[in-house]
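[Q] Does anyone have a clean structure-token version of this?
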Amino acid sequence: MTYIDLMIRFSLIVGTFFLMEGVAWATHKYIMHGFLWRWHASHHQPHEGFFEKNDYFAVVFSVPSVLTMVVGAEVPFLWFLFPIGIGILAYGIFYVVFHDIIVHRRVRIRFVAKSRYLRRMIRAHKVHHQCRDKEGAEAFGFLYAPKKYEPID
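[A] Here you go.
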């Protein structure tokens, strides 16, 4: 594999990772807060136990990643799908670490967000969760939050 091939694959991974923010934002706003609210509502309400109906989305969202990686690995002329699947997987890992572990503390860790970026993201997500209903929520992203969510120091 040449340097150019590696750079193309790396660019596909990184580009897909950042493109996934738009996909996640739209999915969160129009699907999770739309026709599949019956799954996502569990995430906006207090609940018992570790799992919630909202966790079904993790299974559903893993399908495109797995399919693109398998097809990209098995069909030579569709090679580009493999790095795209890796980019989707990387975004999924970021989501779990940021959303489930850092913000919602579903896994107990000692972590204090010190960077302004992380604090802004956490604040935006907490604002999102102030709304317990399908309608009226704001801040649907996971990698980006507008400056209005900047923490006040």
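[Q] Thanks! Anything notable?
[A] Residues 3-110 form one domain.
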